[in-house]
Design a protein that fits this description.
single chain; 525 residues; alpha+beta; Serum Albumin, Chain A, Domain 1; 2 domains; seven-stranded antiparallel sheet; 19 strands; 34% helix
């Protein structure tokens, strides 16, 4: 059993950690807007959810400015080092998943904070970072999810990282006060000197010094030349909504393709939670994954035919391939796992849907020098095959799993939603939107109902359809009979990711839901 949604009339904040949600709410109470609050949430997550996200990672932002009546995207993903080449890994077969040679892309997080505040914020960066700095220096109660993540990935941490996250060689228990003084010092430098302190000052100098000394590739010029970008979202119409996603190098169009396919089916005739519901969504998503894996890369290097993929006639042709009785024999590559999604709406109608990540739990497992920064291993997803669309090249952005979502009606946001989990992001997003739109669920119910995730995760040889046991024996048996490789999992299993959603009601209320599978909170008033 889960509680109902949190309902406010003016503001709403949702995130996977209650302290981060509280940080956003505090900024709103001080007079900040949704953009100020979103950066405060993001920065606090970088401290209190260090296994999922941090200053060494990337972020994508979907923003709605009520004054502009416009949805925009900030792409805060980093490019690969100038010095890295495919032959840097000659004879290895793939880029390592951990260590300094997996940390080959510049972290885009700090730049994205500065960009969002410069464009739309009311508060200076230093004020917005106060909650994060306070938790890094003064400490916070270690979350159950960080405890579980530390147990899972502890062996992958390099000695300097292990000294921080496994003090005394042991996983700290949930609830114990946890401090990160080195990270607090870096955040203070950022608060005082702005983004240039990170990309052109002492932080970049220390990270590059450490990386080059340890045999890595990130250098001063990689940081100095980094800049994220404001860009237009990709979108599609779906049952009276305009649904927005970040464009490539994000996988966001994958969820839009699935919606275009699902538009060909009558949900009024499909019972929620039935075999038909789970089977249809799974098959639509599998078809969109097939195209995603074929084309997604950095569009500065390889054109991505988004218009063709989002063509309604193409969706109709794909929909015709779905059998109501049989699962298609398709495969997909594993694409990472650990992420943090959050969203904010303010009293003026501004809205931010955003997501950030280190790629794997604790990223590369490397803390860079005395910065306290865990570096992401996002670059380990590049291919070493020169013919692969996502092949490694210098100064290139990788295929990126991060994809915040927003749906508008009559030009105004009605749903903000997203989730943790690489392959699971478009899948859970599709579950959330169909539940809220077609079945009238509030955000908390949409998040809490049984979920599935299809695909192969790292180290697994099969394309499983993992389904929470609460879906019921009949549904699980019917899916298996149709040819899905069903694996029942726990009632509220973390493998489903951490999803959150906000919905704007026609009566002026704002509802928020956070995932019972994590440590989050919805806070509104």
């Amino acid at each position: 059993m889960t509680n109902g949604p949190v309902i406010g009339t003016q503001t709403m904040v949702v995130s996977p950690h209650y302290l981060a949600s509280a940080a956003g709410a505090r900024i709103l109470a001080r007079g900040g807007n949704a953009f100020d609050a979103a950066v405060a949430v993001s920065a606090t997550l970088a401290v209190v959810y260090p296994h999922m996200t941090g200053l060494g990672g990337d972020a994508f932002w979907l923003t709605y400015s009520a004054g502009e009546a416009r949805v925009r995207v900030y792409n805060g993903s980093g490019r690969s080092a100038y010095a890295v080449r495919r032959d840097s890994y000659a004879g290895e077969g793939r880029i390592p998943h951990r260590g300094v040679r997996s940390a080959i892309t510049v972290p885009g997080m700090a730049d994205s904070w500065a960009a969002v505040l410069a464009e739309y914020g009311r508060m200076p960066l230093a004020e917005v970072l106060e909650p994060a700095i306070g938790y890094a220096s003064g400490g916070f109660p270690l979350s159950p999810d960080q405890h579980a993540g530390s147990r899972l990935a502890g062996a992958a941490l390099a000695p300097a990282a292990a000294a921080i996250y496994l003090p005394g060689g042991a996983v700290p228990p949930a609830g114990r006060q946890f401090r990160q003084p080195q990270l607090a010092g870096t955040l203070r430098l950022l608060a005082e000197g702005g983004r240039d302190a990170f990309y052109k000052g002492a932080v970049a100098a220390e990270i590059s010094r450490f990386m080059l000394a340890e045999g890595g590739y990130l250098a001063r010029e990689d940081f100095a030349d980094h800049c994220g970008e404001w860009t237009e979202p990709v979108s599609t119409d779906y049952h009276g909504l305009r649904v927005y996603q970040a464009p490539p190098n994000s996988q966001g169009f994958t969820a839009l393709m699935a919606l275009n396919i699902l538009e060909r089916f009558d949900f009024a005739a499909i019972k929620h939670g039935s075999y038909e519901y789970y089977h249809l969504l799974t098959e639509a998503l599998k078809l969109s994954f097939r195209d995603r894996d074929r084309v997604l890369s950095d569009p500065a290097f390889t054109p991505v035919p988004v218009q063709q993929l989002l063509d309604k006639a193409y969706a109709a042709a794909l929909a015709a391939h779905i059998s109501p009785e049989r699962a298609a024999a398709l495969e997909s590559e594993p694409v990472g796992r650990d992420t943090a999604y959050a969203a904010v709406v303010d009293r003026d109608g501004n809205a931010v849907s955003f997501i950030q990540s280190l790629y794997f739990e604790f990223g590369s497992g490397i803390v860079a020098g005395d910065t306290g920064i865990l570096l992401q291993n996002r670059g380990s997803f590049f291919s070493l095959d020169p013919a692969h669309v996502n092949t490694l090249e210098p100064h290139k952005r990788s295929f990126h799993t991060l994809m915040p979502a927003m749906a508008c009606r009559d030009g105004k946001p009605v749903y903000l939603y997203g989730t943790q989990g690489g392959e699971g992001q478009p899948q859970t997003q599709t579950l959330l939107l169909t539940r809220m739109l077609h079945y009238g669920m509030d955000p908390q119910a949409a998040v809490s109902e049984p979920r599935f995730v299809w695909g192969r995760t790292w180290g697994e040889p099969t394309q499983e359809l993992k389904v929470e046991r609460r879906a019921g024996r009949r549904v699980l048996a019917a899916l298996a009979e149709a040819g899905h490789l069903v694996r029942p999992v726990r009632a509220y299993d973390g493998v489903m990711g951490h999803a959150h959603a906000i919905a704007a009601g026609e009566d002026g209320t704002i509802s928020g839901g956070t995932d019972p599978r994590c440590d989050g909170a919805a806070i509104g008033w």
